[in-house]
Amino acid sequence: MARRLLILGSTGSIGTQALDVVARSDDLEVVGLSAGRAWEALVAQARELGVTRVALADADAAARAAEAWTGGQVLGGAEGLVRLVLESQPDLVLNALVGSAGLGPTIAALGEGIDLALANKESLVVGGELVMQLAEATGARIVPVDSEHSALHQLVAHEPPGAVERLVLTASGGPFRGRRRADLEGVTVDEALAHPTWAMGGKITIDSATLMNKGLEVIEAHHLFGTPYERIDVVVHPQSIVHSYVTLADGAALAHLGHPDMRVPIAYALHHPERVELPVRPLDLAQVGALTFEPVDVEAFPALRLARAAAVAGGTAPCVLNAANEVAVHAFLGNRLDFLGIPAVVEATLERLGAHPVRAFDSLYEADRDARAVAAELVAVRA
Question: 70, 195, 294, 375: which could form a disulfide with 324 (CB 3.0–4.6 Å)?
Answer without folding.
Answer: 375
